[in-house]
């Protein structure tokens, strides 16, 4: 199964960006802003009031996701440039947090200059 990985907010309001696509096409549940739902996985980049959380908090949620992906090698994970749109983080801040992600993670090609040739890429959203 292919899982769409997107940046979310802790309130689970999936009204714009990749979160909206996750809600419309990949089974993300309204009101659920973290973890797996349908064929999507939400990684929070904003808090309950839709204000960006700290990079350290985002990193913690990314670590949780990497463990989840590692323990599910039968799935592929299509990781978008989480947090690099509405949350205001840069690709250079977020992409390195996925450097040790398992091989079943596929990344937006926007991150190829940062993550390098040895990662898998899926395209761009």
Topology summary:
Layout: E1 2-9, H1 17-25, E2 35-37, E3 40-46, H2 55-70, E4 76-79, H3 91-94, E5 105-108, H4 112-115, E6 120-123
Parallel strand pairs: 1-3, 1-4, 4-5, 5-6
Antiparallel strand pairs: 2-3
Features:
125 residues, alpha/beta, six-stranded mixed β-sheet
User: The biggest beta sheet, please?
Assistant: 6 strands, mixed
Number of helices: 4
Which structural class best describes the helix and strand composition?
A: alpha/beta
Instruction: Kindly provide the radius of gyration, computed on alpha-carbon positions and rounded to a whole number of angstroms.
Output: 13 Å
| Helix-strand sequence | EHEEHEHEHE
Shape: globular
- State the end-to-end CA separation: 19 Å
Helix content: 25-40%
Quick one: how many beta strands? 6
Classify the beta-strand content into a percent band: 15-25%
Low-confidence stretches: none
Strand line-up across the major sheet = 2-3-1-4-5-6
Give the overall average pLDDT. Answer: 97
